[in-house]
């Protein structure tokens, strides 16, 4: 049985996969905090339109989910990585958003994971990443819009359009660029993405059945 088949047959995450998701969550927790500082600076630079700054950078807070999913290719790892990153932001870095950030991270993670789940964690093309960023940004936008009353504003469509574009570009396409770059270095050879790359496919139950 190949490495790909073994990856598809395991019901639980391996220790190395758990460690990887924790590391990704921790690293991106710090990066997300940096993006918050960029958000503050951009909002000041934009003057009266500064409240829109958060939408331009919204996609940057989605990055870890598709990266974790693409590498491990197991259900739930995107949500887990996003929530872990938010915990780092809140507990260790004192995010100004506070505990509600965990809720936002959960929503973002679910949205980011849906396209890959629909593809049974086998399809990782540019379109899949773009849709991941769009849904991640879109779902959390509606939650935020309800909280802050954006639906009653004239700029609600502008807000959504900017956030959706940011999700696609920063939270989707940039994630694929990062994943492809890491894959080329060889550091991911021992994970599902490496096995799928070597076998020319993805770690799926169908492969397991065919090889038994």
What is the count of structural domains? 1
Distance between the amino and carboxyl termini? 7 Å
Query: What share of the residues does DSSP label as strand, in percent?
Result: under 5%
Overall average residue pLDDT: 90
What string, H for helix and E for strand, traces the elements in order? HHHHHHHHHH
What is the makeup of the main sheet? Answer: none
Shape: globular
Tell me how many strands there are: 0
| Unreliable runs | 1-9, 202-212
Number of helices: 10
The percent of residues in helical segments reads: over 70%
Category from helices, strands and their pairing: mainly alpha
The whole-angstrom Rg is 18 Å
Organism: Serinibacter arcticus
Protein name: Substrate-specific component YkoE of thiamin-regulated ECF transporter for HydroxyMethylPyrimidine
Keywords: Membrane, Transmembrane, Transmembrane helix
Transmembrane segments: 18-40, 52-72, 77-94, 100-118, 130-150, 156-175
Features:
212 residues; mainly alpha; 10 helices; 73% helix; 0% strand; disordered C terminus
Please describe what this structure looks like.
- This protein is an all-alpha fold and 212 residues long.
- It has one domain (3-211).
- Helices cover 73% and strands 0% of the residues.
- Helix 1 (3-9) crosses helix 10 (205-211), helix 2 (15-45) crosses helix 5 and helix 4 runs parallel beside helix 8 (156-185).
- The longest helix is centred in the first third of the chain and has 31 residues, at 15-45.
- InterPro entries: ABC_thiamin-permease_prd.
- Keywords: Membrane, Transmembrane, Transmembrane helix.
- This is Substrate-specific component YkoE of thiamin-regulated ECF transporter for HydroxyMethylPyrimidine.
- The chain crosses the membrane at residues 18-40, 52-72, 77-94, 100-118, 130-150, 156-175.
